[in-house]
Design brief:
By secondary structure, this protein is of the alpha+beta class. The chain has helices at about 10-20, 75-90, 105-110, and strands spanning about 5, 30-35, 40-50, 60-70, 95-100, 115-120, 140-145.
Length: about 150
């Protein structure tokens, strides 16, 4: 099966994520979204936006917010590589993303990312700013690609 990178809207990407992602839902916004297709069917999507961590949101870093596929071999690494190339072509200096600590990161390694930091999982809710946690609270690993 030959895969190709295709442009998609945030709505298309979020619909795919809502149906197929293991532990995350759709995103609120993005800088761009891309998909991979076999020519007939969408096999995976990626959504890239601003870093969620405020201290990293300096205008030079893009964060891959979601990567989701139907399990098609190489779809995730193809998406990650395409996101990296597109973000760098747009002038971003670095691309980051996160995995749960228990995930291997094989697709990220194949796409040229490297683990750079372990992040302790925690709730986003605070006493003066209550939030409903819709994300896993597990520890995470930050991955970066220059």
């Amino acid at each position: 099966m030959k895969l190709q990178v295709v442009p998609i809207s945030l709505r298309e990407a979020n619909d795919y994520v809502a149906t197929n992602h293991r532990h995350h839902g759709p995103t609120r916004g993005h800088k761009f979204s891309i998909g991979v297709s076999d020519g007939k069917n969408l096999r995976g999507v990626a959504i890239v936006g601003r870093p969620l961590a405020r201290r990293l949101d300096n205008g030079e870093i893009a964060e891959i917010l979601r990567v989701c596929s139907d399990g098609t071999p190489n779809a995730c690494s193809m998406l990650l590589g395409a996101c990296r190339r597109a973000a760098l072509a747009m002038g971003y200096k670095k691309v980051i993303t996160y995995t749960l600590d228990k995930e291997s990161g094989a697709s990220l390694k194949a796409a040229g990312f490297r683990p750079t930091k372990k992040v302790v999982g925690a709730s986003w809710s605070r006493e003066n700013r209550l939030r409903e946690d819709k994300h896993p609270l597990d520890d995470k690993v930050r991955w970066e690609a220059p």
